[in-house]
Amino acid sequence: xxxxxxxxxxxxxxxxxxxxxxxxxxxxxxxxxxxxxxxxxxxxxxxxxxxxxxxxxxxxxxxxxxxxxxxxxxxxxxxxxxxxxxxxxxxxxxxxxxxxxxxxxxxxxxxxxxxxxxxxxxxxxxxxxxxxxxxxxxxxxxxxxxxxxxxxxxxxxxxxxxxxxxxxxxxxxxxxxxxxxxxxxxxxxxxxxxxxxxxxxxxxxxxxxxxxxxxxxxxxxxxxxxxxxxxxxxxxxxxxxxxxxxxxxxxxxxxxxxxxxxxxxxxxxxxxxxxxxxxxxxxxxxxxxxxxxxxxxxxxxxxxxxxxxxxxxxxxxxxxxxxxxxxxxxxxxxxxxxxxxxxxxxxxxxxxxxxxxxxxxxxxxxxxxxxxxxxxxxxxxxxxxxxxxxxxxxxxxxxxxxxxxxxxxxxxxxxxxxxxxxxxxxxxxxxxxxxxxxxxxxxxxxxxxxxxxxxxxxxxxxxxxxxxxxxxxxxxxxxxxxxxxxxxxxxxxxxxxxxxxxxxxxxxxxxxxxxxxxxxxxxxxxxxxxxxxxxxxxxxxxxxxxxxxxxxxxxxxxxxxxxxx
Amino acid sequence: xxxxxxxxxxxxxxxxxxxxxxxxxxxxxxxxxxxxxxxxxxxxxxxxxxxxxxxxxxxxxxxxxxxxxxxxxxxxxxxxxxxxxxxxxxxxxxxxxxxxxxxxxxxxxxxxxxxxxxxxxxxxxxxxxxxxxxxxxxxxxxxxxxxxxxxxxxxxxxxxxxxxxxxxxxxxxxxxxxxxxxxxxxxxxxxxxxxxxxxxxxxxxxxxxxxxxxxxxxxxxxxxxxxxxxxxxxxxxxxxxxxxxxxxxxxxxxxxxxxxxxxxxxxxxxxxxxxxxxxxxxxxxxxxxxxxxxxxxxxxxxxxxxxxxxxxxxxxxxxxxxxxxxxxx
Lengths: 565, 329
Ligand code: SF4
Ligand code: SF4
Fold this sequence. Notes:
The complex is a heterodimer of chains A (565) and B (329). With 565 residues, chain A is α/β, with parallel strands linked by helices. Chain A is 40% helix and 15% strand. Chain A has two domains: 19-104 and 122-353, 3-Layer(aba) Sandwich (Rossmann fold); 365-471, no CATH class. Chain A has helices at residues 19-22, 124-133, 146-149, 172-195, 209-220, 240-248, 268-280, 309-316, 372-376, 383-391, 395-400, 411-415, 422-486, 496-524, 532-547, 553-559, and strands at 27-28, 35-38, 48-49, 56-57, 62-65, 74-75, 80-89, 97-105, 158-163, 199-205, 226-231, 263-267, 286-293, 299-304, 324-327, 334-335, 349-353. Chain A has a six-stranded mixed beta sheet with strand order 1-14-13-17-15-16, sandwiched between helices. In chain A, strands 2-8-7-4 form a four-stranded antiparallel beta sheet, with no helix packed on it. In chain A, helix 5 links the parallel strand 10 and strand 11. Chain B is built from 16 helices and no strands. The relative contact order of chain B is 0.11. The two termini of chain B are 40 Å apart. Residues 367-373, 383-384, 387, 415-418, 420, 422 of chain A line the site of one iron/sulfur cluster. One iron/sulfur cluster (SF4) binds at residues 367-373, 383-384, 387, 415-418, 420, 422 of chain A. Chain A: Belongs to the 4Fe4S bacterial-type ferredoxin family. RnfC subfamily.
């Protein structure tokens, strides 16, 4: 049972800047001129497009089908016409393109009919399938499909609801909890039964008293074991593993999931989406997103997935000197890739930057081994050692020092007095290691293919030899037979014995032939199957070698021979 | 395109170093009170030498001179050298020591952050080996006349001066078969340490607490250092109080308190993991005590620090703290 709170080491307390956007109610963003709905909603999978340009779609109509286990459906966020399906830069640090369905809204915002009723009483499988078909994914950022995350439905004791929202500037979950606590908790209760948990624990950072009060009130009205817990506002308390640690004392190692330890964690926004999907039959076509930073009117809007971020930001009135746009918070977010990108399910915050608000980092200095980074690291790493190994491209050592336990929270870089962009070094190392592993896997596969081919060729040769031998034996037998026939005895009786002898002889001959073949292969494998030109080269080389005039040239040519076909 | 995090704490190496300098001020003030303003002259000389040497090497190495010189790390090294050397040391020795510390010990190894040895301590060791007599002339407490100080610093004769540190006096006395008690009645000694030095020690403690509060150092190093020093001194003292001074004397004498808060805490050349810090500081204390009592030099801290510097990579490697989620594995 939970007894009080636990703590994780490290963490930092950056200026929160939450008041700027937290005080006004969620507004609904107006319909943009065009929506670019990404078919890829997470890093993992892409939905299969089922609409064509020119097609009319209704709000909530499916436009992308899930086509593998990890995939979820994608829906039209409003009614309108599909005017294209194109590659478009997506809301991801990589700046990579993804296929988007471009919809021109007709302004009617007409829902698809009929909409299913309340599924909250339906069997578990049906509910899970429905979540997938509604495109429900985690809204905390990682956009992992919720129907997968609820798992087997056994072995989970505690459902943790993540309302920590520890990144500076972001307030979408705060507003959602203040305004829609009932729906969030109703969704949490549904999730609780889906994961088979006994109880619900909601973690909210203690700098959101209104949200805590609203959630407590909503919990009081429900007949379920729900505990609303205020947790200390230390970034990254909202990291899944950190939150689980604070609330339950369990430390989930890298590579393990909460489910392995009887805890499963969902974002409050996800719980809200689950409620909308299961009780109201609504697919996930919008989300609350914070618009803040260097803007005239910061706040939160409920915006359709696929709305161009620039259109959204216009709502808040970005100031003249805005130089960049951040997606996500300043600790873990990323700069909007070149060009405009559409709002994705995992986009929780848009921050307009100005040089005054987010000054460029001072130049990097040498690490003075002050250890400030290690004291700030919530993963209990020694960031300066990782930095050192990464810089020296000593990736093996970096891995030994648990590089892959780094959650890239940025605490270390935040505190470093030498202004070292530590996280960049880790990203570099990680990508190098991945690249090397990919290369190695590719090389392994190539070697396997090569060996397999060699083996196949030898087998084919062997089989051919055996066939030949068998044929030779058969011919011999036939000859013997005709010889016997020539001696006048056409009867069947005398045939049996010589035939048996012949068969034996043939077998011996075949075996001898095989042995010869094998010997030939062993000895002259390199010079099999040569083209005439190569054979000539080999001969020339051989001649040279025999003449001992040029000993070096000889080995070069035949070496390439096996690759010829 | 920059990547996260986009915000950072307004912290800088310069601030860290400035905090260290500020933390040294109480001790410097007490120093002036007890031993006269000569120390200020030394601090100035060492600072100038350090900054000039630093700027020169940075220029040679093609580094941005302005950025690195203003990080104040060279000044900290200069101050530590001035504070560990006798106040009446000839200026050229001080300058030579500082330049050696900056150029050879720090920059030949790659500059700030990459030097395996504590520059101030390395300079101290080099000088005490090279100029043992100059390095062992200390002005007695109350010897506060700036004119005499300057005269000696800038080339005056050393003959006029008598003086040894209490540790030195104790050593010499004990070698001459006196007991701790009889030696300690001598005039170099005060209440529980060297006369005058006790006050300065208080200054170092205040500065250390300030740095702890500012989170420039952690508790591990000073605590382990002082506790280890007290324990080993107590063991020998318990064994033979006539031949070994009390733990309190060892804590209050020589460079113990300066070392506890300002020398073993040098992050660059010291251990960095929490357990590693405990081991490192304990090692320095034990070695320093042994050298003080059985070695050839009156205060062994500088040698002890260098010896332990050598062990730092090993200590750090063997004391990596468990990572989140890997505890108990
Ligand atoms: S905070 Fe920066 S300077 Fe300090 S140890 Fe870490 S990386 Fe080095
Ligand atoms: S980014 Fe990685 S190394 Fe840095 S504090 Fe976070 S977890 Fe630790």
